[in-house]
Amino acid sequence: MEVFRNMHLFVEVAKASSFRRAAEVLGLPNSTVSRRIVELERDVGLRLFHRSTRRVELTEGGRLYFDNCKRILQEAELARQELIDLQAQPSGVIRVSMPVDFSVIYLSPLLADFSHRYPGIRFNLDLTPNRADLVGDPVDVAIRMGRPKDQSLIARPIARLGTVLVASPGYLQRRGLPGQPQDLLGHDCLRMKDAPWTLIHRNGISETVEVSGQFVANNRGMLQQLALGGQGIVQSADNWVQADLAAQRLVRVLPDWTPPVVEAYALTATRLLPAKVRVFIDYLVAQMAQPTGRP
User: Across 162-282, where does the E strand assignment appear?
Assistant: First the structure.
């Protein structure tokens, strides 16, 4: 880098044919300019200027070096400008791993809008609930529900989803309407995994229930369809089920109690992101900033 800076200084001296005038342009002391030109001449191994009390002229080697230095500096400036342009209008392919339901319900409309804003960016989408290896797999960013356990990943929250308990009117007619969390022990609960449900009352107290049921699945869309079919009670993001609640295909269960808010994260292997990935994550954060995660 020092040689590169001295090349820039050399070009200014050659253009001005004067150490003093070049020093004025660069805002440097005249002695500094002279010293650095001497250093440059020592580095390249030849004299670059004929010096006199009245004029500074390029030597034959200096003229050749000037032409090359000017070209190199112009190309460096062009490369810098291209990076600035790339930041302003990123392009290229983003490889994204993301869960099916969240992607279909929340991200698909946002992807359409994003693609209009950044027509130079293309997507390779892998819809899967499985953990992505951001180092070994060809993935630029992974969208996942819940804070990741892998502390080596950079996790940026992009959405907070409020959740509710719902069931079909037919199921509740057959099995009865729970009045308190422990009543869920006598119900079929449709679960993402075999684990207790934690419910939070509107006054802030929480209760944990060891729920069970016939169905465990890794897809919330499947569980919601089972709930619509009268197979049990399911936890769902509140705005995932708004249409079904409005049409009375589903009914709120324990409306004073809600499961914890579910957070969605954008995961990357490093904070040093290409412009295309950075603007995509920034866009998701901006568009999904509402507490319910509505696009």
Answer: 163-167, 189-190, 197-201, 206-209, 233-237, 251-253, 257-258, 262-268
